[in-house]
Specification:
The chain is of the alpha+beta class. It folds into two domains: 18-77, no CATH class; 119-196, no CATH class. The chain has helices at residues 5-16, 61-76, 79-89, 98-103, 123-133, 148-160, 165-172, 176-195; strands at 20-24, 29-33, 41-45, 51-55. Helix 6 (148-160) packs across helix 8 (176-195).
Amino acid sequence: MSKSPAQDRRIRRLLTTPPQTVHLRDGDLVLYRRSRSLLYQCRYRLADGTWVRQTTGKAALEHAIAAACGRWIIAKHKAVEVLQRLHARQKDIAALSFETTLTKRVPHLLFRFSDGHQPHSLVGTFRRLMRDSGLALDANGDNRTLYSLRHTYATLEMLRGEVDIHTLSKQMGNSAAMIERHYSKLTATMAAERLA
């Protein structure tokens, strides 16, 4: 399949554009494009201070930023360690590299029990975990649900103050206005603490 003249011009322009570096998240995430490369690479700092380098697989800066931010968020919350443990537990995918498991569409399930069974829903598993740990009810006497973890995550991120409302809204799939509406009490409390 041949490329159109417009595609050829775009590729020539990209290949002759000087290297570019973009620093994000207070320097914990760096995007860069090498000369003569169409794709952006990223490097990000893990919780233990080590750096990881990966390709974003994207040529457009805005798409590369989205891909890199997603990887940085996973790394920031040590989710990589959890996913690596899950990957190592599954004998049928142990031969696949961890990176391949994450980036390619493999027909194997990662989120399943050690016997290979994947429940239709994790709601029952979560309910048993809460019951067995004595955390089934919240402060109001209501049952905790798997969905309640979403609110817990948003609250903790807002209190930590490291993630802005726009990033949080993108992570959660809501508008910034929705996040502001539900968590405005937190932002007001945080602002008051900073001014005090």
